[in-house]
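Class, carefully examine what follows:
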Amino acid sequence: MSLSVTAQTDASVARIRRSVIEAVIFDLDGVVTDTAELHAQAWAQLFDSYLASRPLRPGEDHSPFTPADYAEFVDGKPRHAGVADFLTARGITVSMGAAGDGTDQETVYGLGRRKDELFLALLASAQVTAYPSTVGLVGMLQRAGLKTGLFSASRNCRTVLHAAGLGSLFPVTVDGVTAVQLGLKGKPDPAVLLETAERLGCPAARTSVVEDSAAGVIAARRGGFGLIIGIDRSGSNERLRHAGADVVVSDAAYIRVESEETSNG
């Protein structure tokens, strides 16, 4: 019995058939685990504190960080890229600095390090859970013979996986640590996603991507992936579609794994 993955015209459901796709790769935060909200909180704490302490200069916008800012400028991106993009949007220029900058340095990398510390503090006090629907989907895909992998811009990916009890769920994981080691660019560049597919032994054209960020969807589109499924948990349906998602669902529960017999019936 063969299976495949294809998009259905009904945007509420994505259907999976093996004749098209051999592997499905998942983003971590917001798709597999509920940690996207922790990242959003950490970014808000970082920028609100920084903007409040920075002297206002002509052309700068110091209004509070918003959910729209999170979605547009930082979600899914490496930390330094998120810092740089948000500050640029607010008319603020700071030195890029270097990857080893400490949290006391007013540089892009220094601010990124501050965000990481804030996130880890939130993570330590939170109970990280996985979305049961996503975990169930991964199991169905694996039982159906499709390969599965995980990708993330975060360097805390493995910490989050273990906190959620998912340390052994994915046979292949490519995260922010791997990206630094291999010199891979972050989303919206497709390099991390392509590396994940390559480690699974599948070409991008026969790999599906499940993402909740516009940056990740853009990366998947640029990488030539066979099917791009957006997960909309926060009213970002149009943003994900505009970025290039083939289909957008509200939860992984609406991603179906089907046999050819079912699809032809």
Notes: Strands lie at 4-7, 14-17, 23-27, 147-151, 172-174, 207-211, 227-231, 247-249, 255-257. The chain has a mean pLDDT of 92. The CA atoms of residues 231 and 251 lie 6 Å apart. The first strand starts at residue 4 and ends at 7.
